[in-house]
Amino acid sequence: MTLSRFFGLSLYLLAVCLAANGQTQTPSVPGAKQADKSGDGYEYFVVGNPADASRKTSPGALLMGGGTDVAAAFQWLIGKAGGGDIVVLRASGTDAYNPYINKLGAVDSVETLIVKSRAAAADDFVVNKVRNAEAIFIAGGAQSNYVKFWQGTPLADAVNQVVAKGVPIGGTSAGLAILGEFSFPALGGSATSAEALANPFVGSVTLARDFLRVPGLQGVITDSHFVERDRMGRLLTFLARLAQDGWVKPRAKSVSLKGIGIDRETALLVEADGTISVRGKNAAYFISVSSAPKICRANTPLTFRRLSVFKLAGEGTFSLKTWQGQSGASYIISVEKGALVSSTGSVY
User: Fold this and answer.
1) Which SS3 state, helix, strand or coil, does residue 227 take?
2) CB-count burial class (<10 Å; 0-12, 13-18, 19+) for 249
3) Which of 45, 82, 93, 272 is the right S-S partner for 55, CB 3.0 to 4.6 Å?
4) What's the pLDDT score for residue 331?
């Protein structure tokens, strides 16, 4: 008998013996962790004290563009949370944020809730964990799941309630996508700039609103992995559709509509007064709409003119209240028959 057949037979006999005793054995997966608690459609993991800690919090928002996380941004969030309970929300994935955040500063706990159904988003345990959080962070993944599973549920209500009381909130990638008043839920899959500019009503361009209510982000839609995945064109298309479809009421001859695009490995720290500073390697782009699109209809390339852009990086700052920045770069961008035209010659 060969060695491989010997081991194979041994494993088979072991399984038979376990079955005879009414037992089963699940192979261990390196790095996998069993949930500390699970229910109908959710899993819960915790590092630190699982009991509620009452700490004084400071309002703020952490907007992160995806990719490698920015440690300094999480340390800022921990400070805003008063070192209390950080709750990470996901619809898929693991508890990987728990040990990562826990090592970045003194916290009472880091808790991950993986909420995978609307039933789970109404579960008392899930909702109470959010209500008792000193900070909320929404991880990356698929924002379509966040919209399908969470929007209009007690979970979303709880997030809005704690944020209204001054609890800081953050999100990265898909988690960033749902923080603005308007969002790209990707219900028809992801959208590229090329296809969106060529046809603003292509099926992949889907829009949603009023999921979360984050102070300072009224009239705003966000996008992530911005330069890395060349998303300027699609964000301008989202803005054109919001204006064209009447999602924002005109004010005089303009519309109050704005976009924020953040590149990977980059985070924006939004203070209670709307002042923004940047952390990380790359830049963020603040776009304001001055008028409705010239041409925005199905199966026709977009024409959308004179959008103001402010590029923020390094030591620069920006104000959500005035929509003006310091120590950055300002320029004008237009879309002419589906093609981007910049006053500086560079889209980014």
Assistant:
1) coil
2) exposed
3) 82
4) 98
